[in-house]
Amino acid sequence: MPALSDSPDGKPVSDRMTSAKIVIAGGFGVGKTTAVEAISEIPAIRTESWMTAAAAQIDRLDPGIDKVTTTVAMDFGRITIDEALVLYLFGTPGQPRFWPMWDDLVRGAVGALVLVDTNNLENSFAAVNYFENDTDVPWIVCVNLFHGVATHELSEVREALTLPSHVPLIAADIRSARHVAQALLTVVDHAAKQAIG
User: Fold this and answer.
1) Sorted alphabetically, which Pfam families does this protein's record hold (predicted)?
2) Lateral strand order in the sheet of 45-50
3) What is the pTM of this model?
4) CA–CA separation, 124 vs 12, rounded Å?
5) Please, is 149 exposed, middle or buried when counting C-beta atoms within 10 Å of its C-beta (0-12, 13-18, 19+)?
6) Tell me: the pLDDT tens digits for 62-87?
7) What is the pLDDT of residues 25-60, one digit of tens each?
8) What is the dotted CATH code of the domain comprising 13-196?
9) Phi then psi for 102, rounded to 5 degrees?
């Protein structure tokens, strides 16, 4: 007699793979593509285009940043967390002219990781506003530790972004697969708590 937890296909429920969609969002140049590439177990799908002189006045970065390409649609990657969970990662484009795509990219997501750069915090306000007011997807904020260095206390970042207390705020060097994995697990954990509660 099959166990009560067996599914119609004969496999125990615990043996079936579950997948979840996570969105990685944030302002222009904050590290979304880098995060997807750092963790994806498949070659990340990138929709990068060369930045041209014509876009220099629109897609501005601080002097000294050597970014030469920009995401024009989305980034996509996949990571198997364990034998029961696969995460599909969708990185949003950061420029304002691509924000109308965010509704489509967020649809069906269990949660979102919003990356911020404390050196360009003003570029983060639109993403924070979007997840706070325009969608019901659970989200957390992650300060990208460029060069592995925290330049501000998390409490200062929370205050500057006026983040509600229920939104988790963490810091990670998104060049590190281990750091990105921990950030994604924080998103999943927060989404699960929101669903329960």
Assistant:
1) ATP_bind_1 (PF03029)
2) 45-50, 69-82, 85-91, 18-26, 111-116, 139-144, 169-172
3) 0.80
4) 43
5) exposed
6) 444 554 555 445 899 999 988 889 99
7) 999 889 999 999 999 999 887 665 544 444 455 555
8) 3.40.50.300
9) -60, -40
